[in-house]
Amino acid sequence: MIELINVTKKFENKNTIVFPNKIIINSGEMVAVIGKSGIGKTTLLNIIGLLDRKESGSYFLNKQDTKLLTEKEVSTLRNKSIGFVFQDFKLIDDLTPKQNILLPRRIGKMKSDGDFEKLIEIFQLRSLLDNSISELSGGQKQRVAFARAMIMSPSIILADEPTGSLDSNNALIMLDYLKQLNKMGTTIITVTHDKDIALQHNKIIQLGD
Ligand SMILES: Nc1ncnc2c1ncn2[C@@H]1O[C@H](COP(=O)(O)OP(=O)(O)OP(=O)(O)O)[C@@H](O)[C@H]1O
């Protein structure tokens, strides 16, 4: 369970974002975060994903006050429990798609490849595994990013505009992947500009008016 109480984020240049007083996301929910450009959607994902810990207010993750976690605890939690799909994918160009997908397992010093085979089937990546990242289309990069986000079987997936660079057909396929994951119990939090995509989630969090 994710619980944010009176959270605000002040950037060094004094930009301040005030989030709703209470944001509660239960385990197993599939939630869309919407709101106009610049309102703070990505910032919210960064806070929930513990990438940004300099917010004020309280953030409880599974009843644990995240302010009390050490940096080491945070990086273990992030690697094991939270999968990110970033707006710009953040794939590593010097690694192949296969190496990118397996990177969290290597960082976590895991000997097995986990669900690698299953994920490359789901995301139809077999023929691309040893290509260069720069040769991939936006949609292909997005599928690699998803497989990497899921390789640790995280309990939470945070996806920033996961359908942003896809045509409408592939956007629906991506949404289906998210729904399948959610059916298996994964909490999904999707930032999206697309009202139709948002309406396919169980809950919508609107930032701003
Ligand atoms: N590192 C930073 N330093 C200063 N201001 C920042 C920083 N990151 C974000 N901001 C500001 O915080 C606000 C929220 O940014 P954020 O990226 O979270 O918005 P968003 O709702 O995700 O926007 P978009 O839909 O355009 O992606 C914006 O006004 C942005 O300029």
Automatic annotation (TrEMBL):
Keywords: ATP-binding, Nucleotide-binding. Pfam families: ABC_tran. SUPFAM superfamilies: P-loop containing nucleoside triphosphate hydrolases (SSF52540). GO terms for molecular function: ATP binding. Residues 2-209 form the ABC transporter domain. It comes from the Bacteria. Belongs to the ABC transporter superfamily. This is ABC transporter ATP-binding protein.
